[in-house]
Design goal:
By secondary structure, the chain is α/β, with parallel strands linked by helices. The chain is about 25% helix and about 15% strand. The chain has an 8-stranded mixed beta sheet with strand order 1-8-7-2-3-5-4-6, sandwiched between helices. The two termini are about 30 Å apart. About 30% of the residues are buried.
Length: about 270
Amino acid sequence: MIKLINDHFQNYKPYQLPKAQLIIADIPYNIGKNAYGSNPAWYINGDNANGESELAGKEFFDTDKDFRTKEFMHFCSTMLIKEPKETGKAPCMIVFCEFEQQFSLIRLAKEYGLNNYINLVFRKNFSAQVLKANMRIVGNCEYGLILYRDKLPKFNNNGKMIFNCIEVERDTETPKIHPTQKSVPLLKYLIKIFTDEGDVVIDPVAGSGTTLIAANELKRKAIGFEIKKNFYKDALALINTYQQRKHDIETFGFAKTEINKSYPTLFQ
């Protein structure tokens, strides 16, 4: 099941949603007009010799400055399932965030009963900061937090040690429709650890919808909110394409619809 809602997560009550085993959110980093500061997209065709592009000096989203972390944390604490009596079943949330945001989020989470955390580092083998390549160090890491109440979360590690520094597998298959889109392989990796088949995964700021795609591929119930109409429309189209591909593979053994778009006479 995938359910993408074109609304703010604050307006969740009328939708009568099931509570989640896992909430994943890539919240706004509030970096303002420097969003593309070291990204080649600042310049036309990614080349500073061509002059600045229409993205120069622009925010990723006009909603960044209005993002209210208290309301976000209230939603998450409300929508996580209750702490169960048995061990190994507790819920948690994963928040992707900017480095300095971690500390304020940890403090805020405690106000909503999420008393514990594990910090995460997502290491990529590439960097968007290509315009800083002449510096000694460029950023290739993103940051996040696992937040949970008192009992350790459900943890499917198959007896293996899991490090908090996680290698990010580059997603070469999913079309990029969102500037901060997270890779499906990374999201699948996280969802596998903290949920079982049939569990509910919620993304309050769904963006491209890749969290929902990853969860559904793993047979979890996926629910997301996206307030921006253009991102909602693109995410819905991406989800529909994914679901059609999944249906075709299950039915025909291959992605018939996609192939037919490229070769329209092949199955005539």
